[in-house]
Amino acid sequence: MEDVILIVALLFFAMHVLTFAEPTETKRRIGVIVVDIQGDFTAAKNGSLAVEGTDQSFIDKVENATSSLMRKGYLIFATQDWHPSDHISFYTNHSGKKAFEVIQIGGRTQVLWPPHCIQNTENAKVLLDNRLFQAFVKKGKDKRFDSYSGFKDDGGANTEMDQLLKRHGIRELIIYGIATDYCVKATAIDAAAAGYKVTLIEGLCKGVDPETTVGALQQMKDLRIKVEKELRG
């Protein structure tokens, strides 16, 4: 009789452990990519390429959401623009050109931006608590190519993002950050193209231009990227 009671107790314990362990394992297969929350893209730090609405309250909202996801067991990664001072996207490196002009370089369309996120400068730093992140994926390091996406640059060179995600067994992604119509969009589209199931959190993003932001959201939806207004749960 005692043996029967012991077996029943062990079975109950095993079911209890599995019940509570399964959600954590599921979450470990869902990664989070926080895109370019850096000083130069924010009004909070008077950035050279500050996106409207990126004041300290927005930064705090993103940090609180990211902290909550980490506490729930999600693995979190950051992308980080990391340009050399002679980067091709800076208008200052093109004689006679002005910020936001659009030119053709090697058959590619290139927007000329103010210098931003220059390597090892204060406003290139990620503004959230760095302890939240499993890794920082730096992009735009090659002066010859722009790199909106956290997965590859305009020249086709891959970052380590895909390898990192696969190493952790991640199959689904939650993506948010700055800017909706540029680096967030490019990262989400490349993630979906690489086979990940992607959810974008619109309320944790800010866009450069209202019109292109609406277009970016629709483009992502058309590619079966799920767009949620806010995080659930």
Protein model, in words:
This protein is an alpha/beta fold and 233 residues long. The chain has a single domain, classed as Isochorismatase-like (Rossmann fold), CATH 3.40.50. The protein has helices at 2-28, 56-71, 161-167, 180-193, 210-222, and strands spanning 30-35, 75-81, 102-105, 108-111, 135-139, 172-177, 197-201, 226-228. The strands form two sheets. The protein has a six-stranded parallel beta sheet, sandwiched between helices. The protein has a two-stranded antiparallel ribbon with strand order 3-4. The longest helix is centred in the N-terminal third of the chain and has 27 residues, at 2-28. 36% of the residues are buried. Residues 4-23 have low confidence and may be disordered.
Q: Which secondary structure elements does this structure contain, and how are they paired or packed?
A:
Layout: H1 2-28, E1 30-35, H2 56-71, E2 75-81, E3 102-105, E4 108-111, E5 135-139, H3 161-167, E6 172-177, H4 180-193, E7 197-201, H5 210-222, E8 226-228
Parallel strand pairs: 1-2, 1-6, 2-5, 6-7, 7-8
Antiparallel strand pairs: 3-4
Can I get a quick summary?
By secondary structure, the chain is α/β, with parallel strands linked by helices. The protein has helices at 2-28, 56-71, 161-167, 180-193, 210-222; strands at 30-35, 75-81, 102-105, 108-111, 135-139, 172-177, 197-201, 226-228. The chain has a single domain, classed as 3-Layer(aba) Sandwich (Rossmann fold), CATH 3.40.50.850.
Label the overall shape: globular
What structural category characterises the helix and strand content?
A: alpha/beta
Number of strands: 8
- Note poorly predicted spans: 4-23
Q: What is the beta-strand fraction?
A: 15-25%
| CATH architecture verdict | 3-Layer(aba) Sandwich
Biggest sheet: strand arrangement: 5-2-1-6-7-8
From the 3D structure, determine the CATH topology: Rossmann fold
Compute the CA-based radius of gyration: 21 Å
Main sheet overview: 6 strands, parallel
Write down the secondary-structure element order: HEHEEEEHEHEHE
